[in-house]
């Protein structure tokens, strides 16, 4: 059945030249006027008369076999004669072409303007520079050691369909370490490991094995620990069949539902196991510890908002490289919605005024991030400062953790032996089976976790010394031990000089009138409470032994008085619990994670030790041995510096600080202007050689941020790369911002080396480019669609005005020459306006398409409302509030132009190659008969209308029931590509109008008697390329949406691969795919979109402008909506197509009653 359409607007034709999509010059139809200008000989051209075909190629003649409607009326063909009048007519014709803006010569689809070439090359150079910087510059050192493990997995076979509906898909296992912990049933503290995106249940091995060995070692050394509630950790792990949770929100919800049921089952295992053991008097466990990797951490937080969550069944969550702040990709609506619901629930809970109103009051959340080596999830996303206050959770980077001091990648964070040792110790330290929750109270858990996972130098770190009782009685001989004068520094270059223990006393200055004073001590020796340590630091007060009072009240009696009758007794507290470990920095040091004895460092503010009178540094070495100690009291103003340099000075000259010869042990330099995660820097430390004595240690530098807790150490430093995870794109602000802003550098230097120290921090511009990769890699799923929409708008503007649909390459040329400058300027102004408006307003601009921000603020307190509103403040454009980064939006747009140009040519190469192979295959003899019949019916259609309708209905039925609409979209892209191939073949295998005029008018003049005949040929030849260009442009915009749909398609395929027979429970909306299917099916018939000469054409322009604007503003944050916006555009194009067709009931009946096959095709066209 043929569609009603005009021959000019909707009927494709053919062209023999590759890429020749030119329109014919306008021809005069007044044959009499023409014949009056030049004498011609007329001949009768009749398709049925073979004599009239003489001299013309057969391909120029109309033929029914080619699907043309032929007028059998004789046509006059001129015999051109070179006359002056004909030459004048030709010149006039050329002038009319110019006035009508018609192309005067053919334009290849492969050609591009110089401006397009320059922009594409510039884009390629920028992208290449960014990737080289990301690969080669500002790279952290790797130093993880592999863990040891001997795994045994016990499957929970009783956890079947009676407990959960997912029993046939997921499995639960109990981990046991061979030779260390093989008991069953479990009697320890339950821990549930949750693997991440496409993760394996076997990834629990390193942490479970390390915890088992740590517990065995601790229990064998101290039997009292069992009485204090310490037990081993029973690690349960879940086999999710490597589910892909990062791309599919419904999978995330299914896992959370299953895990809540698994927690209930796990807790039930302990009801009987403890009654038959020594723990029969202990309460039954009521909660588990969650240990989640990557998206497993998000599943853990989701468990608390699920309907089947058992209250208080989770009180501790430790996550590794989990993207808490925002989803890694926003290609799925359900994943974005789930994130919004989770984060809103957590923020709202911790915003409650009263403890009883907070359902998460007992929960602690620790997020451990890998840092710059994690190339899967940006470590900025691991921040939980916008979700929880520091009383309930914190974010820490592995480079900050004592005895780890290195960055790790996304997978190594689960097997890095240094990290597993510290994490296992921290988890064992919070265990207390005497409580139903199996862990210590929340405040105590937070203190313990911070002690193990933080450096101990963070602002607000609680010191243990003031809370301890005196445990050591130090007895000294009068006038025999060194007392350091006020203001002097204690320096020991060697231990055991007197070959007997000796104490050095440093008087503590009074708390009033001394300003802000702090005490610092640094040594290369271990400072612990063991008797084997060579150095012991005590904070003492004079102790008078009263009559009848015994010295046995002290656990340790340290008598250094000898046989002297006169002695001084001091009641002392040991500072071992507050010791801070620092990586050793010597002239042989290379990395902070080297296998060397770390330095020990103590730091107290005066108010923490004001109740004491002396600091006693006891050298317990009984023989001479290498070792050094430096201790001092110093005013904080001398040790803390702040750089007030502005951004311009930082970019041009950097930061320069000179530390004088007389300086404290440690100097803290704060640079507030350095806070962005998009910048990288070079640190230089220059020091002269010591003049008199050997240096005790080489400069040690710690770079750190107050929020999140990120520290990096540089040992024996001369030059170092500085990069940080501070203010990052699209990351919501902190619930309680830290007062200390910007980057700080803490520098330990040897004060005995009396030479100045030069500190320089300069911008690393090339290294900064690589920082864009992880933060903005998803921007190229949105910004190219901005360019494609604007190019398509140019194509439709030309088509509606001049009747010619230009190629995508020519549309790109027009866009670059006419609109690119305005686009870059608009994006720059928009970025600046958004930045300044956010600085001026106390609240942020809400996303109009964000459901969670609508209607919630009306019934909340004003403080809670502001927290909720602030969460979305970085959703727009490039996700930053800093006006300095205004250039990022136009930079990404410029790079997107080059990407679109490359994508267009890549698509053309593929289409042309397939077309060439298709043309070769079509010449095979066994296909000739079928091809002729199909060409007679419709040269571009691959099947009959009935078959297409039935195929479409079948596809829609499966979308509504079994398959996601993303599968149908992929099919639509394939079909559209096939339509482009057939359209290109149809256009290339027929002669162009330029060849026809070249044959007929080979002389310098041409006068046509019957111009209507040639005009019809020209229109048909031109419209064939118009249709190909239109189909190609539709394919390009569909290809840019395809990556947004592929992740869900991968999840669906994975579900089929693991034999999960339950129907896919999401993405069955027919309206999300029907317009695409209808448009693609329309194009398979070869129907060209009609021209819109009225005001309706402005709707097309507005839709494309809206798509472009949304792609720029919200495309990164809500990328999944781009599919629906293009779907609306497809619906509009489909409506335009149907506006030219007036279907009748009889036509619909004919579709389902027509004959099929070659015979049916012949009958339809006889």
TrEMBL record:
Its main location: endoplasmic reticulum. It comes from the Eukaryota. It is found in: Endoplasmic reticulum membrane. It holds the Pfam family PGAP1_TMD. Residues 187-429 form the GPI inositol-deacylase PGAP1-like alpha/beta domain. Its EC number is 3.1.-.-. Coiled coil: none annotated. Keywords: Endoplasmic reticulum, Hydrolase, Membrane, Protein transport, Transmembrane, Transmembrane helix, Transport. Residues 1-11, 85-99 have a biased composition (Basic and acidic residues). The chain crosses the membrane at residues 109-131, 774-793, 814-836, 884-914, 953-978, 998-1018, 1030-1050, 1070-1089, 1101-1120. It is a multi-pass membrane protein. Residues 779-1138 form the GPI inositol-deacylase transmembrane domain. GO terms for biological process: endoplasmic reticulum to Golgi vesicle-mediated transport; GPI anchor metabolic process; protein transport. Involved in inositol deacylation of GPI-anchored proteins which plays important roles in the quality control and ER-associated degradation of GPI-anchored proteins. Belongs to the GPI inositol-deacylase family. This is GPI inositol-deacylase.
